[in-house]
Amino acid sequence: MYASFHSLQCQIHVFKSLYTLSFLYFISYLEKFYINCQVIFLTIFNRMHSTLHLAFAFILYWVSSMMVAALSGPNVCTKHQMHKESYRMSYVKTQLTRYLTWCFAIPPRCTKYRVSSYTAYRTDYRTKLKSYGVCCSGYVENHGTCIPKCTDDCRNGGTCTGPEKCSCTAGWTGLTCETECPTGSYGLNCAIACDCRNDAVCDRFSGECYCKPGWKGIYCDVPCEKGSYGSYCFKKCYCVNGGECSPLDGSCKCLAGYQGDKCQDECPPGSWGLNCSQR
C-alpha cells in the first residue's frame, strides 16, 4: 500500500512538471510573439516617418524652385551660394535588452539579455551649392521681372530704360528729361538736328519750320515771289506804277516820279526823282 501511495506521488510530480514546462513554453511563445510584433511595428513606423520626411523635403524643394523660377526675363543674373543643408540619415542601432523569463527558480522568473537592432535616424549636415536668379546690378524686381532703376523719376513723360537712364519724349532732354530742346534740335531726347534756314523757328517736338516773313518752303529756304510778302508769302502786294514790294512787310519802293504808300501818286509840280525828293 505504501508503494502504491509513493507511485501516486511520483505521477502527480511528473504531471506537475509537464504542466509547468507547458506553461513556460506557452509564456515564452507569447513573449517572442510580442517582441516580434513590437519590432515589426517599430520598423513600419520608422519607414513611414522616413517617407513623410522625404515628402516634406520634396515639397519644400518644389516651393523654393518655383520661387526662384518666378524671376524670369532679361536682366536676370545667376547667383551662387554655398550653404549647409540638414538631412535625416538612417543607420542601424543595436541595444542590449533586459527581459524576464520563466525558469526553475524561486521565484520562477529569471533575468536574461538579448541584442536587438532597429533602424534609427539622426540629423546630419552637408554642404551644397545653391544657384538662384537675382536682378543684375542697376535693376530691381517688379512682378517677377527685372526693370531698370532710376533714382530720380523721369519727368515730362520720360521712361526709365536703363540703370539711371531716362529716355525722353519729343522736345525734352537732360538726365531726368527736365530740359527743353536747345535751339537747332528736336525730337526724342532732342537727338535730331533742325534743317530750318533763314532764322526760321524749329518746333522742338516735330521739327517743323516756322518761317520768318519773306520766306516759304518746308525749310524756309524759298523767297517770296514778286507780288507777295509776309510769313509763307501768303499776303499780296498792292504796289502800282512799277513800285517794288518788300517781301518782309509789303511796303512799296517807288520808282522816280512817284510817291505814296502804294506809289499811287505822281510827284507834285516842282519836285521830281525818288520819292519826289528833288526840287
Notable traits:
alpha+beta, Tie2 ligand-binding domain fold, two-stranded antiparallel sheet, 1 helix
Helix percent band: 10-25%
CATH fold-level assignment of the domain at 214-278: Tie2 ligand-binding domain fold
Q: What is the CATH class of the domain at 214-278?
A: Mainly Beta
List the strand order in the largest sheet.
Answer: 1-2
The description of the largest β-sheet is:
2 strands, antiparallel
CATH architecture of the domain at 214-278: Beta Complex
Identify the CATH homologous superfamily of the domain at 214-278: Tie2 ligand-binding domain superfamily
The rounded Rg comes to 56 Å
Number of helices: 1
Mean pLDDT value: 80
Q: Tell me the strand percentage band.
A: 25-35%
Task: Indicate the low-confidence ranges by residue numbers.
Answer: 1-6, 10-27, 65-69
Shape: rod-shaped
Order of helical and strand elements: HEEEEEEEEEEEEEEEEEEEE
Class by SSE composition: alpha+beta
Distance between the termini: 201 Å
Number of E-state strands: 20
